[in-house]
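User: Show me sequence and structure for the first protein, then do the same for the second.

Assistant: Starting with the first protein.
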Amino acid sequence: MLVIFLSLRFTGTTEKIATIWPFNALVLALLHWQPRSRWPAILATAFLADALTGILMHVPIRLTIGFAMANQVEIILCAGLLYGEPGAFRLDNRRALIRFVLLAGGAGPACSAFIASLLLVHVRPMAETFLAWFTSDALGMMVFAPALLILGSAPDRLYRASSNKDRLLAVVGVAAALIVVFAQHSYPILFVIPGALALASFKLGMRGAAAGILATAAVAIASTIVGIGPIHLSHGDRTEQILLLQAFLGFVSLTILPIASALERSQGILDNSQAANEALTKARQAAEEARTEALEHARRYRDLAEYTTDIVLRYGPGGVISYASPAIRSLALEPEEVAGKK
């Protein structure tokens, strides 16, 4: 409910269409980790939270219920088409990322935006409502859902391969970039953020990139609310500034996550290569040890055969004697004479 409340507070319209809407992304990420048997309870809870918050904020009942139903349609559509087994859907490959963009960033928000535009058809033009709703929902999905999904499912090879010092420097670097960019409104230096997040991805991997994107979104939204940050250098009105913020957050999410994914795959290839080399080295060592042990057993056997008073014969294929011990001399025969005979 807190997420819904903050989203509705950060709006410039009287019809209570939130400019940024992460709620659907949170529910979508939660459904990802739960079996389908639990989905009805989760969806019902989300619907009640959505509707109750709207009522508490004095949104008309008809709109409150209608908006909550529109959000449910979006969530169910995205979850139903994206997810199979719990936790099976991953965003660390290009095909899955493209599929997510088309569904969660396109089809799902478009369906809910169409429903919302019908509900407000007597208040404002349908096209205007559709664009406002679609933009806020698509932004919430594209910024928050990938990051939340990746935090719980992405590999952490790069993180494990980095030292504590490197991790700390990466975190400090991102924090410093956020402070420098959003604690002032004199210089338009938003370009610093993608660079800092990309560099951090080398040490923190996909999970670090996802956490950095969420932190960037939180700081960017907070600074815009309180009236600071480079977003306010825009000479447009509040709506244009919000659109600029949404475009920036969407750009950050759709550029940093593929970079982090590529880095994780590269690290995975390197890890597999190192593991294969280690396995090959161990196999060679084991083979050499086995060879040494076999030679030692052969030497002991030959020593035993050389010095025993019992006659020892070794037969090869076809019953041909391949070895005769020196004790054969007790029969007035030399070992060389016996070898090769049946």
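Switching to the second protein now.
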Amino acid sequence: MYTNLAGYFEAIFPVGETQLGLIREVLQLVNGRRVLDAACGSGGYSFALTREGCAVTGIDLDPGMIAYAKEQAYRRGLSATFRAEDMRCINERDGEFSLVLCMGNSLPHLLHDEDLKKALCEMQRVLSDEGVLLLQNINYDWVLKSRPSQLPVIEHPERGIAFSRSYDYRDDGLVDFTTCLTISDGEGQKEYGGKVPLRPITREELTATLADCGFKSVDVYGGFDKRPFSDDTFHIVVLAKKG
């Protein structure tokens, strides 16, 4: 379903200054500025970090997203590299990157324990010895406790965009994630909808899997501003250090 969103993704999820602030803080701690943007979507953070002097590789499983990101990199005169690639099998040498990003609630698209472990172990493998993995998901400890049927609608009236998101809880423990993007312009409205299954990943499962993959320290926050994590924060943000 994400291919239909490629041209609108940066408008729906614009690059945030708070997010960039944390990324800059991490980059000051690591030796190097080579960045892997795993599940990069249409490339918003890849573009922002390229402008700040990083050598960025973006990967995403959706070929439509990657095609759009490549086109936009060319149009904007940016040197970021993009590949349609599975983060469970990253085509890079050991120790290639000083920072790996995996944001935008991407990991819950991996529906099995072994898939999550493969992805996190691959991210650990391609990090340098001083490297850091920065993860961001929706906080599924909160989701499983509160069981919301709707997530907040993302609206940008100045662009005629509204993005609605809903959850349906399945008996097998997965959650069906349904989206509807409404575009309003002078010619009327267009809607793009879709549905994908997600696997709720709790803090305990995420931190345990990171440890199993060899990360030496794991810091957990409730947002990119490093607020304390709790069962009631909307996000979980993790900084996992390889060495």
